[in-house]
Amino acid sequence: MLLYEVNGPLFFGAAERAMDALKGIPRRPRVLILYLGAVPAMDVTGLVALESALARLKQQGVFCIIAGLRPQPESVLRKANVQEQPGRLRIVATLDEAAAEARVHLASRK
Predict the structure, then answer these.
(1) Cα(108)–Cα(32) distance, integer angstroms
(2) Rounded-to-integer distance, Cα 58 and Cα 64, Å
(3) Which of 16, 51, 79, 98 is deepest in the core (most CB within 10 A)?
(4) What are phi and psi of 51, to 5 degrees?
(5) If you write DSSP's letter for every residue of 32-87 in order, what string do you get?
(6) pLDDT of residue 102
(7) Whole-number mean pLDDT of the chain?
(8) For residue 50, which of 84, 11, 24 has the smallest C-alpha distance?
(9) How would you label 64-85 residue by residue, b for 16+ Cβ within 10 Å and e otherwise?
(10) Residue 5 CB: number of other CB atoms within 10 A?
(11) Does the predicted model carry a pTM greater than 0.90?
């Protein structure tokens, strides 16, 4: 399991750098918690970078949990129809919920 926290707005440039950092993870985790609680805003380039990272992680078989969405980024994801996908993507409100989801997922894969 890996926790990745993004701080600051996900706008052009910063969004790509933040999501590209996920490519540099030396060992692919079974579960990735993407904490966005410190992301006050996201634009379309941030959305594209996030969707690209999620697609890449899905292809690699990584279960992703997005946690801590603030109102504006949550609205962007909702308008883009980014939805939970059983066994692939969960969206939860808090890190505690994310940790619980990760434990359940890992226990079910033993």
Answers:
(1) 16
(2) 8
(3) 98
(4) -60, -40
(5) EEEEEEE---B-HHHHHHHHHHHHHHHHTT-EEEEE---HHHHHHHHHTT---BTT
(6) 96
(7) 91
(8) 11
(9) bbbbbbeeebbebbeeeebeee
(10) 15
(11) yes
Buried-state track 89-100, b at ≥16 Cβ within 10 A, e below 16: bbbbeebebbbe
Handedness of CA 103, 108, 109, 110 (dihedral sign): positive
CA angle 95, 57, 7 (to 5 degrees): 45
Orientation angle between helical segments 71-79 and 44-59, nearest 10 degrees: 70
Q: Kindly report, residue by residue over 24-49, the tens digit of the pLDDT.
A: 777 789 999 999 999 999 999 999 98
| CA–CA separation, 16 and 11 (whole Å) | 8
* Segment among 45-59, 61-75, 89-103 with least mean pLDDT: 45-59
Stretch 12-21: mean pLDDT:
78
